[in-house]
Amino acid sequence: MADLLVYGTPNYWYGPSAKMKLLMDRMRPYGVSKKLRGKKAIIISPAAEGPKVSGPLVEMLRLSFDYLGMELVGKVLGTAYDKGEIKNDKKAMNQAYDLGASF
Ligand SMILES: Cc1cc2nc3c(=O)[nH]c(=O)nc-3n(C[C@H](O)[C@H](O)[C@H](O)COP(=O)(O)O)c2cc1C
What we know:
Rossmann fold, three-stranded parallel beta sheet, globular, binds flavin mononucleotide
């Protein structure tokens, strides 16, 4: 099994997408089996309004990782609305590159 999991979700209504929420709902058994303990996690999330609105999304996932015994080791919170627009956010693109290169 992988040592590191990347959680990518757009910011929908200041939280994760319904698909990501469904995935997290299905991860409940891993709290009991402890199979994800010690795993690292990264959050990648664009929002039209940018990183300033991503606090609740990050906190929800961080608490969930805590519960699962995982460690949040990095995040990239970009500013984008339309497909491909994230490429204009040089800061987020560089953060993603540096984060990827650091493992
Ligand atoms: C249903 C929906 C809700 C959204 N809610 C927010 C929001 O609360 N704050 C924000 O900054 N952007 C919001 N956005 C913008 C998305 O975060 C942004 O467009 C993102 O890049 C979409 O990724 P996607 O193309 O994978 O859906 C929303 C977009 C959609 C479709």
